[in-house]
Amino acid sequence: MPIADSHVANPGYSPKKREFDVVITDFRLPGMGGMELLENLQNAKPRMPVVMMTSYGNSDTVIGATKRGAFEYLMKPFDMKELIDVVAKAVTSSRLMFKPVAMGTAKAGTTAIIGTSQGMRNVFKEIGRVAPTDASVLIRGETGTGKELIARAIYQHSERSNEAFVAVNCGAIPETLLESELFGHRKGAFTGADMNRIGRLQQADGGTLFLDEIGDMPLSTQVKLLRALQERTIQPLGASEDVKVDVRILAATHQNLEQYIAAGKFREDLFYRLNSVVIHVPPLRERQRDLAELASFFLSKASADFKVEAAPFDNPVLKRLAAVEWPGNVRQLENVVARAVLQAKGRVVTVEDIDGILEESGSSRILQDSDDIEAALRSWVRGVLKKVQKSGENDGHARLISVLETTMISEALKLKNGHQGNVAELLGISRVTLRQRIKALGIGGADDA
Predict the structure, then answer these.
(1) Do 117 and 253 belong together in one domain?
(2) Which of 224, 212, 208 lies closest to 267, judged by CA?
């Protein structure tokens, strides 16, 4: 993580000689001043996060530095944890801005939104249609579908791509801190506010603010966000003056906001303000056509990350991956593939590797419309037998037969509305035998008719 400090004030410095993730500089420097350095950096690299430090700051210098593109402003003295937190946020912001997002194709060393399925083609069309505008966009989809990548692609294809892209995960920040995180605060605004702090909306001035998991935003913060969107001004906590901001909002959620509105947990007026353009990201189970390409891409990525030679997946492994329901979507697939590559340590990844990882995570649910029922059954049987082996009870046959028979009779009873005569006919056994098995297995819900 290269970090530049104030030695870049050297007039002979060229940003092209070395790449940096973030610049940390003092406001007062010999020769070139911090504000002049900030302007030069913004001209050379408009998206480069710059953190400024000073012992002499006031509201005018804070506002002036922010207007010129400063990512954050630290008042001396500050503790190291505070500096590390700010630098971490700046590096994350830098990564989100500078790392390009490819669409539709998987190339080594890139971050990509992969897919040729109809659902993903629709997503690409929407990105192309909305990116050049300033419209707010609500990105909807289940957890792990890649909503942040969609937001980054919109930003990178927008007219604001040379300005900041600032991301805030509303679900990861405590409710008591989220308002300060978004709008900033003045020194003394609350206990522990020992310095002025620029909010994320102000950091994103001229650029784009991505609000991830906006469904988790508390109602009090929703009110202030709506005002900021309507009036294009914010008021930091403890401040008496408004600050103008020009920010494009991209938001994402996996929540059902309509239900949240009905329950009084989300403001309807904010919903319609954000809902001008909606992009629905399909879950992985609806993207079977994309799964092999996604798996191969993650295989190559994991191989490079872990510096391990990984052979391409064979058909049995791809069939097994295609049979999984993937409740965690693309993110879960990436994690499973990465673990399999690490576990294989250069040998070919097998179906057994995949099954073991899925069983450990409790995510081996199978798609109901999968043709590979036999593979799913084998996976389940293997998991039960492993548990029996660990327990040392050696009753694998009895346990498997009991579960299978109980499931079979229970499902047949449901299908035939509990009528034992019809169930016996369906299963091809006598009613006496059926009654005996129902009693022995302790199955309820049957009518003796």
Answers:
(1) yes
(2) 224
**Residue 214 vs residues 168, 217, 271, 274: alpha-carbon distances, Å:** 9, 5, 10, 10
Neighbouring residues of 109: CB distance < 8 A, sequence distance ≥ 6: 304
- Say if 334 falls within a structural domain: yes
* Pairing of β 101-103 and β 165-169: unpaired
Q: Which domain holds residue 160?
A: 99-282
Q: In this structure, what DSSP letter does residue 349 have?
A: P
CATH number, domain with residue 351:
1.10.8.60
CATH number for the domain spanning 34: value is 3.40.50.2300
Question: Which portions of the chain are predicted below pLDDT 50?
Answer: 1-18, 368-371
Quickly list DSSP for 276-319: TEEEEPPPGGG-HHHHHHHHHHHHHHHHHHHT---PPP-HHHHH
- How many beta carbons lie within 10 A of that of residue 194, not counting itself? 12
Cβ count within 10 A of residue 244: 11
pLDDT of 411-431, one tens digit each? Answer: 888 888 888 888 888 888 988
pTM of the predicted structure, to 2 decimals: 0.68
